[in-house]
Design goal:
The protein is α+β, with helices and mostly antiparallel strands and 135 residues long. The chain contains 1 helix and 8 strands. The protein is 18% helix and 33% strand.
Length: 135
Amino acid sequence: MSVSLGRARVALLWSLFVLALYACSVGGGGGGGSGVPNTTPEPTPPGLLMLSPAALNFSALGQTQTFTVKESGYTGTFSVNESSPGVVTVSPAPSGGEYAVTAVGAGAVQITVTDSYSQSQQISVGVTAAALGLQ
């Protein structure tokens, strides 16, 4: 009886040893990780993304107007996309935070400005006129 009890203890100890090795290799304190959860918070946007004005209206092709992008504490770049190519062109104005919009075709378009934190705002643009020129 003492022989089978000894074998049972050895089998139990061996099983515990194998389980401990497995736990360490899966991130429980060795091998795969430190065992300490990552508590670093995700970066948060510095401020609210704002566009001004909320809408632009053009009465003739070739006209240019500007809108301003502001986000307090933000130092990254913005991406700018138009919903209908061929109505306006958008380019950064010489002063930072401003974009120049030029009417190139009749229609309506939404310009979407997005920061690197995926915050976005839209500005509505309408172009309702013929080309500028002498008549």
